[in-house]
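If you are new to this repository, start here. Below is one unmodified record pulled from the training split, so you can see the exact layout before writing a loader.
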Amino acid sequence: MKERFDAVLFDCDGVLVDSETITCSVLRDMLEEAGWKLTLAECMRIFVGKAVKDEHALIEAHTGQPLGEEWFVRFRERRNEGLAARVQPIANAVAAVAGLSERFQGRLACCSGADRFKVELQLKKCGLLPYFEGRVFSGHETPRSKPFPDVYLAAMEVLGVQAGRSAVVEDTVTGVRAGVAAGATVFGYSPPEAGHDAPAVLREAGAQVIFTNMAQLPTLLD
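And here is the target side for that same chain:
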């Protein structure tokens, strides 16, 4: 049976690795130290799906002080320490990716808005890096990050696949919009746990399929 897609392109945070609570806990603490007091839930609502570096104007407006590159370096260091100690794979993600890697003969990619060091640290920690070796794409290395399609277009070019034959797996509105803008079919992952956008908003952003468990993905790709 001919496959409906030629490649599967995954977001990283919240789709492959359960990292958002860890990252936002560090960010919340550092924002409070800088003068912006938020609950963890508020911090996640504001920042999940976005690159912190792209939100510097918002942060400065609420802290009332300019934040230099040193602040962002400290944030990345503290975030990476937390992730290295505690990050875990999303439930059933490893099994799903392993099966899809064999099925699609390695035509998988990880396309994240985060910096490459963070992405590869998490994939390695969670036993996922072998399935994406040489096919990790960072929004920090493209002209524009999500919600623009650049990171997905870069992956499609390297894999040699057409947008219309590519499946994208995302869990936030920002990511869904990036996949749609790239011309891919977007699958919205929306489990009930905190840190993922709701099914309705993912569908409104353009996700064609909504699912709640990574174990469902291989069948949905048929």
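Two things worth knowing about this chain: Strands lie at 7-10, 17-18, 88-89, 108-112, 136-138, 166-170, 185-189, 209-211. The chain has a mean pLDDT of 94.
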